[in-house]
Fold this protein.
Amino acid sequence: DLFGSVEPLLPSLQEDGVAVWVLGAGPYPPGVVALQELLDAASEELEPEDVWEPEDMNDTCLYIFTSGTTGLPKAARVSHLKSIMCLSFYELVGASSRDVVYLALPLYHMAGSLLGIIGCIGIGERGGAPGASRGCFGGLIPALRPAGATCVLKEKFSASQFWDDCRAEGVTVFQYIGELCRYLVNQPQSPGERQHGLRLAVGSGLRPDVWRSFQQRFGPVRIVETYGMSEGNVTLFNYTG
């Protein structure tokens, strides 16, 4: 969808040795790698573990967009270790494989992709997985019996559709950025806004006045406020509310 914005910059990117990969139907100009063709041709069989396991967990796994807590917006480096640690995010806040997680955050940020998507994948039972007794990456990460939670992806957040979505999809967990909760409490009251199965809201930036209004209006939803930076190495959890 964004290739039109990148295309005018292709000559300068190629001069700097920057590779451009695009997902979607082409055709694309020379020098652009069309990922869809490669995915279609790829085998569904996994390569041996020693092929894809990184030599060093602190090596770069990916670069992800950060809006600039530590300066201007930039591509922040995320290591393999930090990516793997995100597997435990939802377990840390009390979610389980029975939960249905509603995610409407942009997937180019760490909150939506690494905490949201990878966090849903990582929910499981510790230990007992056949052949996984040594854990991931040579024992650095405890072994998991992968179970995963259901993730409901919403392309764009809609305060007016939120509770209808929750009822239709059986949502039990909502991952927010604080302003999303403000949008919800600013909506006109509706008869069905307390008729839902939401039990847990987790995210960042929820102000105290919105926190109180959210629980008073929508019912006894447990809220776990967290804070971390894509470029940082410390994360905070408000477990006590």
Observations:
- The chain has a mean pLDDT of 87.
